TrEMBL record:
One of its GO terms (biological process) is anthranilate metabolic process. This is Kynureninase. It comes from Halogranum amylolyticum. NCBIfam families: kynureninase. GO terms for cellular component: cytoplasm. Homodimer.
């Protein structure tokens, strides 16, 4: 972050918005005028485009019934592959390396399982390297896959430990690869709490130098950060589509498999991953598709994939590089405003844009109650244990003025201790 010439005034924020090439896209989203929606890193908002693509499938279901598999436009039979190809430019991948299928967690199961099986065949180490700040579901899935192969997860899941409780040093990932026999490095692109962006290229290179496979959970970067998975030689990746891709609650996830692994038998096989040419021959022998589609399991979830189709029409009006550029500008402004105006809060997100994803972790000892006070005042954010308010100025629908106004509301809550009126945290979704 350059230390110079940031004008913290609201007028300057409005002036930045006037120069914003993405400003018009905001109108595509259903967002109340009196609300600041800063939780798109958890659940993106509805766009008219997503609503239309969902309505289209419902109409086709009504009008075509079973014929929709072949006669719908687009046909449902290869809905997952087609959406995968539409996502490929956001990932720096070839069309057939990407498929929209399953949930992130299921995709971790099948891909970590697949590469553990490969390692066994190759006689490599069946150990997975993750980190101690991961989103829990990643560990649950990895540990379950190890257990299913008779491997003790306490011995076979190794964790890189964070030095500061916020970030993971790539140097420590490399050091772990040097010190231990690792079979699979599985890391997030962006840490869900602090928003740190890890160096996917460096981790992949280091993994390969040490004979390990490199897989990534892109849940917090897809749609906000540009990727170059194929150029970096990443082995596999997974993500969800309900955050920055705005495809709706529980929308279908996605996965990437590098083309050099095509033909590998998926750990969780099912007929939807069979070669499309022979799928309806109903052979009892499974023939994996020669593309990422092989990692599908059962029938494509057309209704919960449909909103993504429309959502990608919004992305098609810009480039992921332009989206990333605006995202960096917004998070930069947010961090500077917190520094300038909120002396009682700390920023838990790296200040170097190259190490930052699309959201900012604002730390305060009363973060939970602060998040409730913010929501009550129309600033939709979330709280993450133990002291983080996550604020996500998602670039497709957030302006610099929104960021300025949200910081002002936060300043007032913190300065007047307005959070004191709220109950401490109990159970439930935060
Ligand atoms: C890094 C990460 N992985 C996975 C998930 C969730 O996976 P799923 O969509 O399977 O619930 C989340 C958020 O819920 C996440 O932040
Ligand atoms: N899928 C959800 C369902 C309900 C509430 C939150 C989520 C999230 O996605 C949380 C998010 N992954 C996080 O980074 O905390």
């Amino acid at each position: 972050m350059d230390g110079d010439e940031f004008d913290p005034s609201r007028e300057a924020a409005v002036a930045r918005d006037r120069e914003d090439p993405l400003a018009a896209l905001r109108d595509r989203f259903s967002l109340p005028d009196d609300e600041f929606y800063m939780d798109g890193n958890s659940l993106g908002p509805l766009s008219t485009d997503a609503e239309e693509s969902l309505a289209r499938v419902v109409d086709e279901w009504r009008e075509l019934g079973i014929r929709g598999w072949t006669d719908a436009d687009p046909e449902w039979f290869d809905y997952g592959e087609r959406l995968g190809a539409r996502l490929a430019p956001l990932l720096g991948a070839d069309d057939d390396e990407v498929v929209v299928t399953n949930s992130t967690t299921v995709n971790i199961h099948t891909l970590v399982g697949t590469f553990l099986d490969r390692l066994r065949e190759e006689g490599g180490p069946t150990t997975v390297l993750a980190n101690d700040l991961d989103f829990p579901t990643d560990h649950y899935a990895i540990r379950a896959q190890l257990r299913q192969r008779g491997l003790d997860p306490d011995d076979h899941l190794h964790l890189v430990e964070s030095r500061d409780g916020r970030t993971v040093e790539e140097d420590d990932v490399v050091a772990a690869l040097e010190a231990e026999d690792v079979g699979i490095v599985f890391m997030p692109s962006v840490l869900y709490r602090s928003g740190q962006l890890l160096d996917v290229e460096r981790i992949t290179e280091a993994a390969h130098e040490h004979g390990a496979y490199a897989g990534f959970d892109l849940a917090h970067s897809i749609g906000a950060v540009d990727h170059d998975l194929s150029a970096h030689g990443v082995d596999f990746a997974v993500w969800c589509t309900y955050k920055y891709l705005n495809a709706g609650p529980g929308s279908v996830g996605g996965l990437y498999v590098n083309e050099r692994h095509f033909g590998t038998t998926p750990a969780l096989a099912g007929w939807w991953g069979n070669d499309k040419e022979t799928q309806f021959d109903m052979e009892l022998t499974y023939t994996p598709a020669r593309n990422a589609g092989a990692w599908q399991i059962g029938t494509v979830h057309v209704l919960s994939a449909a909103p993504l189709d429309g959502s990608l029409d919004v992305f098609a009006e810009t480039t992921i590089e332009a989206v990333r550029e605006k995202s960096v500008a917004l998070t930069d402004a947010l961090i500077r405003l917190v520094d300038e105006r909120l002396p009682d809060c700390a920023v838990g997100t790296p200040r170097d844009a190259a190490r930052r994803g699309g959201h900012v972790a604002i730390e305060h000892p009363e973060a939970y109650r602060v998040s409730l006070a913010l929501k009550d005042r129309g600033v939709v954010v979330d709280f993450r244990q133990p002291n983080v308010v996550r604020v996500c100025p998602a670039p497709l629908y957030t302006s610099h003025a929104d960021v300025w106004d949200a910081v002002e509301i936060l300043r007032e809550i913190v300065e007047t201790e307005a959070y004191a009126e709220y109950e401490p945290r109990g159970a439930g979704v935060t």
